[in-house]
Amino acid sequence: MKIDSTCTFQHTFASLKISNNSVPKERLQSSNVINELFKDLRSKTIHIMKKIIIISLLIFISSNILFAQQTNYQLSSHILDISKGMPAPNVKITLQKQIQGNQWEILAEKQTDKNGRVSDFLPQTDGVDHIGVYKLKFYVEPYFQSQQTDTFYPYIEVVFEIKDDKHYHVPITLSAFGYSTYRGN
C-alpha cells in the first residue's frame, strides 16, 4: 500500500470495502482518521511552502534594493606599518582639496579601520566631478606613541591630482623613520 497521498488511501480502503463487506468498522474509522491527518499535513505543508516562497522573494527584493543603493567611492587609502608587517589601525586621516592657490578645504576626517583602511572618501554621485588637487594628511605620531615608538614624522602629507572619474587608491607604507606612497587600485 502506497502512503504518498490521500487518494491512494481512499482507493485502497474503498477496494477493501467492496471486496470484503466484513471489514471491521474500527479499520474504516482509522483509515478516515489517517485520511484527515494527511489532508491536514498537506494543507500545512502548502501553507509553509507559501511562506517560504514569500520570504525568499522579500529577501531577494531587499538585497537588490540595498545593492542598488550602495554608494561607491572614488578615493581610498591604506596604511601598512612595514616595521611590523601589519596594517596601522586607528590612524586619523584628513582629506583636503586645494581651492585657490595654496588654500585647502577640509572635506573629510576618518580613522583607519582594523585593517588600516579607509575606503569611503569622495562618494561618487551622478553629476559630481571630483577633478582637482587633493591632500591626504596622515596623523601618524599618535599611532607610534601607542606603539611606544619614537617617530621622525608627526604627520605625513601626500598631495596628488584626480584627473578623471576612475577610482584612486593612495596608500602609504610606513615605519618610524620613513614612508613611501604610490597610486594603487
Task: Lay out the secondary structure.
Elements: H1 6-19, H2 25-68, E1 73-81, E2 86-87, E3 92-100, E4 103-111, E5 117-123, E6 132-139, H3 141-146, E7 156-162, E8 168-169, E9 172-175, E10 178-181
Parallel strand pairs: 1-8, 1-9
Antiparallel strand pairs: 1-2, 1-5, 3-4, 3-6, 6-7, 9-10
Helix pairs in contact: 1-2
State the helical fraction.
25-40%
Give the ordered list of helices and strands. Answer: HHEEEEEEHEEEE
What is the tally of helical segments? Answer: 3
Annotated CATH topology of the largest domain: Immunoglobulin-like
Tally of individual domains: 2
Q: How would you sum up the major sheet?
A: 6 strands, mixed
Report how far the terminal alpha carbons are from each other.
67 Å
What structural class do helix, strand and pairing data support?
Answer: alpha+beta
Q: What gross morphology would you assign? A: elongated
CATH class division of the largest domain: Mainly Beta
CATH architecture of the largest domain: Sandwich
Number of strands: 10
